[in-house]
Amino acid sequence: MALSPSLDSEIRRPRPRPARGIGRWLRHNLFADRLSICLTLLIGALLLYCLPPLVDWAIVKAVFRSDSAACRLAAGEGACWGVVAEKYPAILLGRYPPGEQWRAVFASALLLAAIVATCRWINAGKILIFGGLTAIFGAFALLRGGWAGLTVVDSSLWGGLPLTLLLAIVTVLGACPLAVLLALGRRSQLPVIRRACGGFIELVRAVPLVSVLLLVAFLLPLFLPAGSSIDVLWRVMIGLVLFAAAYLAEVLRGGLQSIPRGHLEAAAALGLSYWQTQIHVVLPQAIRATLPALMNNFISVIKETSLVTVVSLFELTGALNLALIGDVEWREFYVEAYLFVAAIYWLLCFSLSRYSQRLALRLRTDRSF
Phi, psi (5° rounding) for residue 80? Predict the structure, then answer.
């Protein structure tokens, strides 16, 4: 049946484009109603009051060269970014031997490249897993040495940004599969498995991370056979993995409980086994439902690596303290140094947060259940 010319033109009319422009964005986000207008004006007034002196201190009157005398003359009026120019190798690389610091730089670049590749091509599957493990083992090999003529550097000398990245990546990769097993075990029909997983999760979540680190660093060696030992770095990684897995397991358990029972019955009707159902039906939906909370835990892992200083592993914040505590010339300019380290943490965490938002939008628009 032929359509009338008017109806045919209506069908073929292109979809209207949403109105864009800076004016529409301002009206929609800043001046949508009276409350928004009041908050916008209040925040604008605060910015006008705070920004000029901040810019004056941080940029206009700041000292950027490595000159402690000039920094003292500008004390109280301008920032001393010269402390960053003077101490950045010690802050970023810790106590790693100066002649071998290029290895720590390459290890950091390798780990950052692995993170970026994972975020960029998350659907690559096995290739990403192989590439990520290769990056981790490559970073370990570069930092440790002992091959191809590289001198051996003890793990007690590792620090700064390479150690922060290494701890965060290993913790996330190790905690994720363990968290899945714990979450599934806590929902098991077998009472022994359910109670064992639940007891472990509640026990770990009931204590602070510092106590876990102290336990694995100082008490765990007492239970090892005589004459055997595990490097403190490996013990700390085990503690971080167990601690993060307990929190991730509870997040995943919430996602598992949100799966409609009809999906499980449909999988059983199709003849899928228990593990096929979990891998292909349940876990993808649970991860998608809990993605914001999972990414929030990953961000927390990055920040919690700063606590390893209590067991004498000097990551970014520990390396900063180590670089300034014995230097009387630059010690008084610790605020600027801490702001530099805070900017690094902010960049890592903010980038991961923005990626999680993009990933959530992509998963929401690509497919639904």
Answer: -110, 85
3-state SS, residue 63: strand
pLDDT tens digits for range 6-39: 545 555 555 555 556 777 877 887 888 888 889 8
Q: Are 246 and 212 in contact (CB under 8 A)?
A: no
Please count the CA atoms within 13 angstroms of the CA of 117 that sit on its side-chain side.
Answer: 18
CA pair distance 339, 328, nearest whole angstrom? 19
Rounded Cα distance between 353 and 355, Å, is 5
Q: Which residues have CB under 8 Å from 290's CB, separation 6+?
A: 251, 252, 254, 255
315: phi then psi, degrees, rounded to nearest 5: -75, -150
Helix, strand or coil for residue 281? helix
DSSP-assigned letters across all residues of 211-247:
HHHHIIIIIGGGGSPTT----HHHHHHHHHHHHHHHH
3-state secondary structure of 159: strand
Rounded Cα–Cα distance for residues 154 and 216 (Å): 19
- Taking CA atoms, 59 is separated from 55, 75, 91, 268, in Å, by 5, 14, 22, 65
Contact 263, 282 (CB under 8 A): yes
Give start and end residues of each alpha helix (H) in 60-100. Answer: 68-73, 82-93
Q: What is the greatest pairwise CA distance in the chain?
A: 91
**Residues in the chain with pLDDT values less than 50:** 7, 366, 368-369
Beta strands in the chain (DSSP E): 159, 314-315
CATH second-level architecture of 83-366? Orthogonal Bundle (1.10)
At 142-188, the pLDDT tens digits run 999 988 889 999 998 999 999 999 999 999 999 999 999 999 999 88
Half-sphere exposure for 249 (CA within 13 Å, toward CB): 29
The domain spans of the chain are: 83-366
What is the identity of the amino acid at 122? Answer: I
